[in-house]
Amino acid sequence: MRIDVVSLFPEFIDQSAGYGVVGRARERGLLALQGWNPRDYAAGNYRRVDDRPFGGGPGMVMLIEPLRACLDEVRQADPAPAPVIYLTPQGRPLTQARVRELAALPRLVLLCGRYEGVDERFLAHEVDEEISIGDYVLSGGELAAAVLIDAVTRLQDGALNDAESAAQDSFEGEAGLLDCPHYTHPASHAWGEVPEVLRSGNHAAIARWRRQQSLGRTWLRRPDLLDEAALSKADRKLLEAFRAEHAAKGEGQGG
Ligand code: ADE
């Protein structure tokens, strides 16, 4: 996959994508990442990339022309068609379902804004999609782009060492549930015991317990996800049992 990022801080993108799964994917040639600075395409000695907003008010707005010239260059670097995605709190909230779709594309172009934003005419003409990573405001799109890059890269074939681990993540699997709890050594610790079933060697019982924990956690923490989830009859039974046990322990939902 190829990802081009238009940003006033291309070094930030390069460095943030230098570690762990994403760094390794780049080394393995699974991800080609390139940053492009609109300042390099700005005219005049000052290489101006922003100006004051019409109508007044605080902050600066990114100019059309440096962005347009930069994007032209990005397009010429590779003829493969690619959606241009603008990272903004006004965008559609990013979900794992959208991450999966984007991860299947051969190329993405990400646009990071700074200051108060980008001239609306540039967005109207050049941007295919606006994405938000959550209902909070960052100082620019770079961190949001880094989040998107990480999420799509780990889904590339060969990016993860254990092919299983992506399939079992939260939101993966057809029901879109939260992940179950995980434990490692020691089995016994001052802060508690590892659940017996995980040490039983009974793979069917372990799979059932994990599924039940996923269902139960989703019910406790993100009941909105359960409304959307396609649960089987067996799932409903497992969740029923989880809820009964939870009620017997006297714990309320949300605990
Ligand atoms: N830029 C600033 N805040 C953002 C957010 N929440 N999501 C995506 N891009 C942003």
From TrEMBL:
EC class, as a word, reads: transferase
Q: Name one GO molecular function term.
A: tRNA (guanine(37)-N1)-methyltransferase activity
Q: Where does S-adenosyl-L-methionine bind?
A: 113, 133-138
Residues forming the tRNA methyltransferase TRMD/TRM10-type domain are 1-227
Q: Which Gene3D superfamilies would you find in this protein's record?
A: 3.40.1280.10, tRNA(m1g37)methyltransferase, domain 2 (1.10.1270.20)
Where is it located?
Cytoplasm
GO BP, sorted A to Z? methylation
- In short, the EC number is 2.1.1.228
Q: Write down the InterPro entries for this protein, in alphabetical order.
A: Alpha/beta_knot_MTases (IPR029028), tRNA_m1G_MeTrfase_C_sf (IPR023148), tRNA_m1G_MeTrfase_TrmD (IPR002649), tRNA_m1G_MTases_N (IPR029026), tRNA_MeTrfase_TRMD/TRM10 (IPR016009)
User: Which reaction equation describes what this protein catalyses?
Assistant: guanosine(37) in tRNA + S-adenosyl-L-methionine = N(1)-methylguanosine(37) in tRNA + S-adenosyl-L-homocysteine + H(+)
**Which sequence ranges form a coiled-coil region, renumbered to this chain?**
none
Q: Which Pfam families match?
A: tRNA_m1G_MT
Q: Which domain of life is it from?
A: Bacteria
Q: Which UniProt keywords apply?
A: Cytoplasm, Methyltransferase, S-adenosyl-L-methionine, Transferase, tRNA processing
From the record, give the transmembrane residue ranges: none
Q: Which HAMAP family match?
A: TrmD
- Record's family? Belongs to the RNA methyltransferase TrmD family.
Q: What does this protein do?
A: Specifically methylates guanosine-37 in various tRNAs.
Q: Describe the subunit structure.
A: Homodimer.
This chain belongs to which protein, by name?
A: tRNA (guanine-N(1)-)-methyltransferase
